[in-house]
Amino acid sequence: MTTTRREPSKAGAYVLDEQVGFLLRQVSQRHSTIFAALIGEELTATQWAVLSKLFEVGATSQNLLGRLTAMDAATVKGVVDRLMRRDLVATRPDLQDGRRLVVELTQVGTELVGRLLPRARAITEETLAPLNAAERSQLEALLKRLR
């Protein structure tokens, strides 16, 4: 079966390459490729999000950690479970509310985050390399408005 290319879009036509969701997905795929190249097989992006957020805010409830990293309860639980098996995080009951589980970095987790922070910064730098400083600031501001 052969495909034929259609004429350029007429005003109001739907063109995939012009859709914000498609463009965001392409940028996300590029960023994911850079992440995989620089972090390697040590961590997934969701695992890094949990570890770096714990490094940033300290011990916190698993529920709040999910909200802070934009993960649903099942996803954050799975990520925390995998990180616990690697001795990167530990959990304990919340002293004020025994129903809550507090998640915190272990010493091994803290050391790993410290070691990977320069690579994480390099991921952002490489992702944003095509943009100048003003464009970077503008993109960040616009993305924050859209989330």
Automatic annotation (TrEMBL):
Q: Where is the HTH marR-type domain?
A: 17-147
Family annotation (Gene3D superfamilies)? Winged helix-like DNA-binding domain superfamily/Winged helix DNA-binding domain
BP GO annotations: response to stress
InterPro entries attached to this UniProt entry: HTH_MarR-typ (IPR000835), MarR/SlyA-like (IPR039422), WH-like_DNA-bd_sf (IPR036388), WH_DNA-bd_sf (IPR036390)
- Record GO terms (molecular function): DNA-binding transcription factor activity
> Which ranges of the sequence are coiled-coil?
none
Which Pfam families is this protein grouped with?
A: MarR
* PANTHER family the record matches: TRANSCRIPTIONAL REGULATOR, TRANSCRIPTIONAL REGULATOR, MARR FAMILY
Name the record gives this protein:
Transcriptional regulator, MarR family
Q: Origin organism of this chain? A: Arboricoccus pini
